[in-house]
Design goal:
alpha/beta; eight-stranded parallel β-barrel; about 290 residues
């Protein structure tokens, strides 16, 4: 029995190591973000850059372009509801291609009203398709625990509709490894075979998280957390959240069901030094 346990533990370590090595970070386009990325994040780690209605998409494109020039693989968020029309979208595409950016993360966005003709991610993805698929990698969102405003059946249908225009899925935060693994299994059962990166918060400073989540227009992840008070409490209670515990549970849960989970996507809240140190230290313990 001990040998079987050792084999199981060894497989979990291998799976966790694979997920950690295939990790991407979300960053917010704030003052000092570029410098923090350069100081703490290796160019081997892919990045996404958030976009907001309040700041506009320009700051996102500017930061994404600068990071790409430094050698990072960057996927700016493209929230459909803040893109006004095909002309605006074409301008965004042209800017990104000029900056040699070949990846985007397409979301509906949570602006209360669409700025123009794109009410959801699917409509923007279809416009990108008509433009001849200008990007090599197109990520879309996944919701392991559903969405408070959208029925589960509608979310699953939307995922199936968006999948042909996409190359990967990044999930929203979920604090239950078994829930995430089961969701990924259901997605695979729907015939959606896109690789999945599981969204999870990194080792974020609680006080900083409160400041961010209390603000307005500070990125998809911050807004999501602001609206989901039960999630916020997971960070505020002592010992309520540990990225290491969640990562290890995901490493153990993934092999239990047929999934296409390939890595983690860390919501860093710009705590880049702590996040990268955490990832490296956890990888080092797995190598011991």
């Amino acid at each position: 029995m001990g040998v079987i346990d050792d084999i199981g533990a060894g497989r979990e370590r291998l799976d966790l190591g694979r997920l950690l090595r295939n990790t991407s970070y979300e960053v917010m386009p704030f003052k000092g973000t570029e410098e923090a990325v350069l100081a703490h994040v290796p160019t081997s780690v892919p990045l996404t850059v958030t976009a907001t209605e309040a700041k506009g998409i320009g700051v996102t494109l500017n930061l994404a372009g600068r990071l790409a020039a430094h050698g990072y693989r960057v996927a700016p968020h493209l929230p459909a509801r803040i893109v006004s029309d095909d002309t605006h979208l074409a301008e965004v595409v042209a800017r990104l291609r000029e900056a040699s950016i070949r990846s985007v993360f397409v979301i509906g966005g949570d602006a209360p009203h669409p700025a123009g003709k794109f009410p959801d991610a699917l409509s923007l993805l279809q416009s990108l398709e008509r433009m001849g698929r200008p990007f090599d990698d197109v990520g879309i969102g996944g919701y392991p625990e559903g969405h408070g405003d959208i029925p589960d059946e509608t979310i699953e249908l939307a995922l199936k509709q968006k999948a042909p225009y996409s190359t990967s899925i990044i999930t929203q935060m979920c604090f239950h490894a078994a829930t995430t693994a089961a969701w990924a299994g259901r997605v695979a059962g729907l015939g959606v075979d896109l690789p999945v990166r599981v969204g999870m918060p990194g080792p974020v400073n609680r006080q900083k998280l409160v400041r961010i989540s209390a603000g307005l227009g500070l990125g998809q992840s911050a807004r999501f957390l602001h609206k989901q008070h039960s999630l916020l409490w997971r960070f505020l209670l002592p010992g309520a959240y540990s990225p290491t515990k969640l990562a290890k549970r995901l490493g153990g849960a993934v092999p239990e069901v047929p999934t296409n989970i390939r890595g983690f996507h860390i919501f860093t809240f710009n705590e880049l030094a702590r996040t990268e140190q955490w990832r490296r230290e956890l990888l080092a313990t797995l190598a011991e």
